Every structure is written in structure tokens, then in C-alpha cells.
Amino acid sequence: MASGMLFAMLLMNKAVAGTFMPEQGTDIARQIDDLYGFLIIVSFISCAILIGGMIYFAMKYKRKSANDKTAYITHDTRLEVLWSVIPLIIFLLVFAWGWIIFHDMRTMPKNALEIQVTAKQWAWVAEYKNGVRSSEIVVPVNKDVKILLASEDVLHSFYVPSFRIKQDAVPGRYTAVWFNATKLGEFYVFCTELCGTSHSSMVTKLKVVSQADFDKWLITESEVGLLPIAQRGAKYFQTRACASCHNVNDAVVKVGPSLYQRWGKASVQSDGSKVIFDENHVRESILLPQANISAGFAKPSPMPSFQGQLSESELAAIIEYIKGLN
Fold first, then answer.
1. Is 256 helix (H, G, I), strand (E, B) or coil?
2. Pairwise CA distance, residues 132 & 214, whole Å
3. What's the pLDDT tens digit per position in 160-198?
4. CB of 198 within 8 A of CB of 241?
5. What is the CATH number that goes with domain 113-222?
6. What is the dihedral of CA 88, 94, 95, 100, to 10 degrees?
7. In what helix (H) or strand (E) does residue 178 lie, and over which residues does it extend?
8. Has domain 228-323 been given CATH number 1.10.760.10?
9. Which of 43, 42, 39, 36 is nearest to 20 (CA)?
């Protein structure tokens, strides 16, 4: 009877997980949902027994007259054993179940594809072993992937709801998390640690593609250096997370000023002075962001300095791309 009840509960919690949870993108996501569904059903049954029993006894033993007396009951050893042993068995089962899942999540597989993911206000940047950098994370399906996390500024947290994985990116040290995506498609990566004014917009995509498409993507991205200078600048603008703070169209202004149709025009600074939006102004703003803060924006600027992080050719490509926004 007990085994039949457990089997029925496992079937029920699959329905619970499928209804209330995000899409399952990994086997571990399915295992976590099974455990979570089991906890919900056990809690519901326990609540029904407890509250139902209270209501039943309150009605059954309700005092009906002044002389109505309930017979004295000492205890029932069988009941005391049952309500102690059954919860203990359930707690031990949940502990063992959870420990097995946690152990699998924290044991990094050998020969996994390693991707360096760096968090910074307010973007994720993925770097592959062949030097490809991307603001989106692209991985092959059915392949173990190890994410090495680092942070350039404050505490961030790497969270993929569909994979049921979350790991902090801590300044000054490396952390790691792994997954094996079983479904093709696009999944969202969020930061779940409050990291500043644009924390809520620190979102990127994790794309799961076939192995052939992944290999093709790596080759294509590694040939960025062969593109025309403005197109290279557009790539760098994305991979260096410039797009997370600056708009390149007439949309709503983000953390930093929009770059749309700014080239060659006068730019009003926070001190009231005006400078021409040209090559030198853009270069200095990238390398020394505190030196040029546009009027109406936070001071000091939340933008980090890219000095030492961008080569002169990369700077020139980004500047050429910004020119083209006119």
C-alpha cells in the first residue's frame, strides 16, 4: 500500500512540476522538479490530515450540554509511533533525495566544454578557448558545459531558471557551475543578486544549438577580424557589453546616454561645458569615463574604465561603428 501511494505521488508531482515550473532544459531540472513536487504533495497531505483531524475532533467532541463530559483518554502507543516514525522516514527520504541531486550538481564532469563567463555592471560576457567573446552564451545540445564565473566589480549571481542552476559570481575569486542542456532553444540568464541601478536589465540569452551549428558559430565568430571596421565595432559593442548601458536608436535612455545620431554634435557635460562628440571625446569617455559625464546622468559614472582592456584597433572599430549611427 505504501509503495503504491508513493508511486501515485510521484505521478502527481510530475503534473505539478509541469504546470507551475519553467520549462525543463536539463535532466537535473527534471530531478529538482520531482523533488519539489513531492514536497508539495506531502505537505498538502500532511496539512489535510492535521487540519481535517482538528475540524473532525472539534465537531465530534463538541460540548452539547452542561453535563456533557468526554471520556478520559490517556494515550495510544500505536498512534504515537506512527506520527513519529512516518514523518521521520519522509524527512530521511527527502534528505537523501536532495543530497543525491546536490552532489550531482556540484560534481563537475570531466572533459566538459569550459566557458569563461565574466559578470560586470550590467552584463554577462562569455569567452571561449579559441578567443571568441560574446554577450550571449552559445552551447551545443547534449554536451557537458562548465561555466567558470568571475566578476569585475560587485557580487552577481548567474541564474538559468530553465536549468534550475544558480551560482554567485564573486569579485576576486572563481566559482563554477555546470549543466547539460537536453533541449534546443533559447533560455534566459538572469542576475539574482542586487548589483546596482540596472540590476533588472542584466539579462542575456543562453542558446542551445546542435553540435554542427555550434562549430559553425565558433568559426564565424572567430573570423570577426576579417570584417569591415564598422562591423567589427558592432561586434565589440555587443561583446564588451556596451549595449547594456547605451542605446543605439531612439529608444528610452538607459544608464548611459544614447549614442543615436550624436556624432559631430555638441554634448553638454555635467559641469555645464560643451564638447564636440568626436573621436577624442568617445575615446576618452571609454578609457576615462569619470572625465566626461553627460548632463543629467549619475556622478560618479557607474561605467567602468576600459583602459588596458581594449586595443587601439578595437577602440577605432567601436568609434567607427558609433559614427555610423548617424
1. coil
2. 12
3. 999 999 999 988 888 889 999 999 999 999 999 998 888
4. no
5. 2.60.40.420
6. 150
7. strand 175-180
8. yes
9. 36
